[in-house]
């Protein structure tokens, strides 16, 4: 047993995790991969180099299952235990945005197929790539993934990824899906496919049945949402004053500042998202990257707030379509948020969605699920 397995058992013994048969099976596979990396560092890589052979990269892992099953937690545990290996952990959507940017740069050089040099550059930067939440929902990604990942694997990269879907369901019903099928075949043949579909939704369990819509704004709502954030992210209490921020890419070359971001959970103010000039591209970037959004300071809206109301509608549409979980503090219940002003009648649909987003069925849906 490597540090991965030992750390998992320590967390169970300390009461921080519950014993879970599916998770233990996944840990065995992650432990095997960590051991393969250790073996290469301790001698396998040296001997292979001595005899002029390039060592084979350890076999990667595709870990899939429903929301809240602990996929990201297990990958983080594994990632933190692998040392001495050039590695990178990145959300899958962020990685693909970066790849398309690199491909555009290569095309400007007019050097033929741009995928080979891009894959070679990525392989030179990391021997271990860890992706969170692999989901394929656009044809631009679908058309290049098979060639890109084939080149990465050939370049010595080991890939570990999580997803809410089994490989065969990726890009389901997508445009020209037949061109995507080689990628599915590659994943199923080149990676260990590990299901993680135990009976417990740990993310929902952490919320402990607490409400997701808090009225009114104020200290009590803020305290409840703060507690929800730390439950969802398992953030150490001693570090609560140092929650990290980040900037995420928005199509068009812009970035969006996220004041608090951890393990797929982001915190925003209504003012930042809806009182400033933002559009669908911003909200889609958020919806694709985060499985949970905490939104504070939602006011009761009136005729003078029609622009803010319109942006809020677009934001909720994006979150709803990507099954993002929404925890919020507002000055009114959804049905009473915007009752007079341009678009107030249409806002009734948004109010209905906000109510649905509080249901157990919605909260149990996988992020990005159609």
UniProtKB/TrEMBL annotation:
Gene3D superfamilies: P-loop containing nucleotide triphosphate hydrolases. Signal peptide: none annotated. GO terms for biological process: cell division. One of its GO terms (cellular component) is cytoplasm. It comes from the Bacteria. GO terms for molecular function: ATP binding; ATP hydrolysis activity. Keywords: ATP-binding, Cell cycle, Cell division, Nucleotide-binding. This is Cell division protein ZapE.
């Amino acid at each position: 047993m490597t540090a991965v397995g030992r750390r998992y058992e320590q967390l169970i013994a300390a009461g921080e995790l519950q014993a879970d048969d599916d998770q233990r099976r996944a840990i065995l596979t992650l432990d095997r991969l960590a051991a393969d990396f250790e073996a290469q560092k301790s001698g396998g890589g040296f001997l292979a180099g001595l005899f002029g052979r390039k060592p084979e990269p350890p076999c990667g892992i595709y870990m899939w299952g429903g929301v809240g099953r602990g996929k990201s937690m297990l990958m983080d545990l594994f990632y933190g235990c692998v040392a001495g290996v050039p590695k990178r952990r990145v959300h899958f959507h962020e990685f693909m945005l970066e790849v398309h940017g690199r491909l555009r740069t290569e095309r400007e050089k007019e050097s033929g197929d741009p995928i080979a040099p891009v894959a070679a550059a990525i392989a030179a930067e990391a021997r271990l790539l860890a992706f969170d939440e692999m989901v394929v929902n656009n044809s631009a990604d679908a058309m290049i993934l098979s060639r890109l990942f084939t080149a990465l694997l050939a370049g010595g990269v080991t890939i570990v990824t999580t997803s809410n879907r089994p490989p065969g369901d990726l890009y389901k019903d997508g445009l020209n899906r037949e061109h995507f099928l080689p990628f599915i075949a590659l994943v199923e043949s080149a990676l260990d496919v590990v299901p993680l579909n135990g009976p417990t939704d740990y993310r929902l369990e952490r919320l402990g049945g607490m409400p997701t819509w808090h009225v009114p704004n104020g200290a009590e709502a803020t305290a409840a949402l703060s507690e929800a954030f730390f439950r969802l992210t398992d953030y150490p209490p001693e570090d609560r004053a140092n929650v990290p921020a980040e900037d995420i890419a928005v199509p068009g070359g812009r970035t969006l500042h996220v004041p608090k971001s951890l393990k797929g959970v982001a915190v925003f103010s209504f003012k930042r998202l809806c009182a400033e000039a933002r559009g669908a591209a911003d909200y889609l970037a958020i919806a694709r990257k985060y499985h949970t959004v905490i939104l504070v300071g939602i006011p009761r809206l009136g005729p003078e707030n029609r622009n803010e109301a319109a942006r809020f509608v677009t934001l909720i549409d994006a979150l709803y379509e990507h099954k993002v979980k929404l925890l919020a503090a507002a000055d009114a219940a959804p049905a009473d948020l915007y009752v007079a002003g341009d678009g107030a009648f249409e806002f009734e649909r948004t109010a209905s969605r906000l109510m649905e987003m509080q249901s157990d069925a919605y909260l149990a849906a996988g992020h990005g699920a159609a």
